[in-house]
Amino acid sequence: MSKVVGFVGAGRMGEPMVVRLVAAGYRTIVYARRDDVRERLQAAGAEVVDSTATIAERAEVIITCLYSDPQLIEVLGGPAGLLATARPDAVVVSHTTGAVSTVKALAAEYPQGPVLLDGPVSGSSDDIAHGRLTVLLGGPAEAAGAVRPVLEAYSSTVMATGVLGSALGVKLINNALFAANAQLVGVAAAVGRQLGVEENQLLDALAVASGNSFAADSIRKTGGFAKFGKLAGPFLRKDVAACVSATADLGVDLAGLRTAIADGPFDLI
Using one digit for the tens of pLDDT, what is the confidence trace for 4-30? Predict the structure, then answer.
């Protein structure tokens, strides 16, 4: 394939994305800071560069997989950022789960620059490695259609959700619902203990019963409530904070979702 893909943010989620892009035949240019990551990606067949300027100059599709809004603003914004320096015909996809207002402000600041799509994801690094990630895409339909084949290198589902920011809206609701479900499973386990049911027995039973949920499966597969809280807790807290902030900015009430997220055994809000 001749399309050149630029990538910024080759971390826990981004690195397997790059590996899949290279394996799919895309010429992939990566900006990475850590030496060990650079070495692994070079060995995988990616071209590793020392600045985002090379990506801006050459890439037709630019993918960023960054942890937070401040990082996204740092990479995309400003006179040296990718939205100011990339080819005007390029499409930029942001996999960051953050505020709708951030992507809208960045796009408005550079109306003559490349098209910006919000592309939050659902799934794990293992899902990426096996090509079964879900990507939500908000922004112009033509641009979303153009990048779909690229994103399908590591995704089994690429779903357009509408205007810029709509994908983040869907993802934030999804994250809030998952957090609420996890808390409800924790509350159910507390009730179960009062009934003499051990938590592992409950989780195993739920896996084959009508009360099962993705959250219950995640807790079970992680190894129980303690391990889930330790491993998933930091990411859930980040996602919940982003959801609370984003909905507050828009004057949207989380209502019962916020109550469920706050009232449970996990420290999420």
Answer: 999 999 999 999 999 999 999 999 999
* Distance separating alpha carbons of residues 258 and 8, to the nearest angstrom: 33
Crossing angle of helices 35-44 and 14-23, rounded to 10°: 20
Q: What is the mean pLDDT of residues 104-111?
A: 94
Structure confidence by residue, pLDDT tens digits, 108-146: 999 988 999 999 999 899 999 999 999 999 999 999 999
pLDDT for the residue 99 = 86
The pair of structure tokens assigned to 198 is: 């051990």
Amino acid, single-letter form, for residue 131: G
CB 64 within 8 A of CB 9: yes
Query: Among 269, 266, 267, which Cα is nearest to 187's?
Result: 266
In the block, tokens 């979702």 appear at 257
- Separation CA 235–CA 230 (nearest Å): 10
Contact assessment for residue 97 and residue 239, using Cβ atoms and an 8 Å cutoff = yes
Reported pTM: 0.87
DSSP for 193-235 reads HHTT--HHHHHHHHTTSTT--HHHHHHHHHTSHHHHHHHHHHH
Beta bridge partners of 63: 7, 93
CB 229 within 8 A of CB 151: no
Collapse the DSSP code of 70 into the 3-class scheme (helix H, G, I; strand E, B; otherwise coil) and give the result: helix
Confidence of residue 179 (pLDDT cuts 50, 70, 90): very high
Determine the residue type at 155.
S
**What is the Cα–Cα distance from 140 to 147, expressed in whole angstroms?**
11
